[in-house]
Amino acid sequence: MPTVSLPAAPSPGVGTRRLRVRRVVNTAIVAASSSSPTPDALADKKVVVLGGGIIGNSCAYFLSRRGVPCTVVERVEIAAAASGKSGGFLAGGWGDGSVTQPLHRESFRLHEQLAAELGLKTYRKIPTLSVAGGARMALDPPVSWLDGDVASARLMDDATAQVTPLELTTRLHEEAMKLPGSRTVFGEVVNVTTTESDSSGGGTRVAAVTVRDETTGTTASLDADVVVVAMGPWSTRASEWFPDVQVPMTGVKSVSLVYDASNAVADEPAALFCAEDRNGCHLEVYPRSTGEVYICGCGGSEYIDEERLMPGGDLERADAVTPDQKRVDAASRSFKGLSPGVGGAGPRVSQSCMRPCPPDALPYLGAVPGVDGAYLACGHNCWGILWAPVTGKIMSELVVDGKSSIDLEAFDPGRFMSAAQKRGKKIKGVNVGEQW
Ligand SMILES: Cc1cc2nc3c(=O)[nH]c(=O)nc-3n(C[C@H](O)[C@H](O)[C@H](O)COP(=O)(O)OP(=O)(O)OC[C@H]3O[C@@H](n4cnc5c(N)ncnc54)[C@H](O)[C@@H]3O)c2cc1C
């Protein structure tokens, strides 16, 4: 992609430098199945999406399908965090009966549609098995590569699917950037500035996003009519930018492993949900379409509080998140026990990432109260890959139509506001466990 430079705003004490910007030149956008033409005014809206994970890029993609170009601002690289390192397991029915049911159902449907639109190589339907380790079972296991100590393995759900998150995030980004006027800015978002709103009710509206080049320390100001905060666990910084809104968040940091491709796994794919074992693991095993095996559920997840995610914290950047070797070793032992044929050689990749977890484990989706043009799309916990398409669709509807086709009441970004908080008291995140 061609690289151009943005004029940078002067910043006290640091002079004027230039930010790294990638602008994508006029290429036709991929045919959209449900897009409708939008007035030119929408193409002129300055929409800035904060965060280049799967949620930010899905928002940019769905907005591009409605004819709205976006600037995506990313601090490290596209899919640098969980969106490049997580499982990609998709289950449409696992939210049934809860407030997240419409997110699960609609997004599961959209994943299949997107896989065709984007020409994804890694999306596929796979069955899911429930597995318990222990003494070897008498009957043959349902997949031949479970050739170790497996006490039971039964079908749990035959209507599940998977996608490799890195491929989906990257493709969403590439396609969104094809709309003329779209661009990617690499730098750290340090502020969102607001100004008095033109609307009759008073209040404020977003005006600009301040982006810092971490290599030079210089800042630039990007004009904005609309800002979508999609920075995963780091979205808690929005509490500083919109003082009347609290965005409490815990980053739940977990290890994951990737094993080399195996023919047996490629020929007999099945996702596995394993019972807690003697190594403290509850493995989730997701064979990739390549025959590689991705594993998470390695146990011992660490709960990262807001201070560690905020500026100056040890995990303020995605590339500072590293794996705990004890959990790598424990999970490697567990998988080798279940599948010596595939797991015997040990993992090729060991890594770590965080899922963004609000205190009630529900995402923040919708408009920021009292600030016109500001939206939150974050806190997707363990379902961010599944819910990315529906989140993009919702945000495009809010920006273009002014309303969402899905009821967002339970996901209201203002739900942790209270009279006490408005007076400046801050809520703390609570431990919500490792539940799905
Ligand atoms: C081990 C593990 C396995 C998982 N498995 C699944 C699964 O199977 N299915 C599923 O549906 N979900 C799964 N998830 C959850 C899913 O991965 C997350 O919910 C999702 O990736 C969150 O996406 P995001 O875009 O909100 O955040 P992230 O992927 O965290 O992206 C946020 C981005 O914002 C950037 N950023 C942060 N601060 C700034 C700043 N100041 N300025 C600019 N950019 C900034 C970061 O660099 C990062 O790139 C899993 C999570 C984990 C940890």
What keywords describe this structure?
436 residues, alpha/beta, FAD/NAD(P)-binding domain, D-Amino Acid Oxidase, Chain A, domain 2, 2 domains, 8-stranded mixed β-sheet, 24% helix, 28% strand, elongated, disordered N terminus, disordered C terminus, binds flavin-adenine dinucleotide
What does this 3D model show about the protein?
The chain is of the alpha/beta class and 436 residues long. It has 2 domains: 3-83 and 167-246 and 360-411, 3-Layer(bba) Sandwich (FAD/NAD(P)-binding domain); 138-159 and 250-357, D-Amino Acid Oxidase, Chain A, domain 2, CATH 3.30.9. It has helices at 40-44, 54-65, 82-85, 101-118, 165-176, 238-241, 263-267, 306-309, 325-338, 340-343, 384-400, 419-422, and strands spanning 3-7, 18-23, 47-50, 70-74, 89-91, 124-133, 150-162, 183-186, 188-196, 204-212, 219-223, 226-229, 250-259, 271-274, 284-287, 293-296, 302-304, 349-357, 364-367, 371-372, 374-378. Mean pLDDT is 87; it is low at 1-37 and 419-436. Bound molecules: flavin-adenine dinucleotide (FAD). Residues 50-56, 73-76, 80-83, 86-89, 188-189, 230-232, 234, 254, 256, 296, 318, 353-356, 378, 380-386 line the site of flavin-adenine dinucleotide.
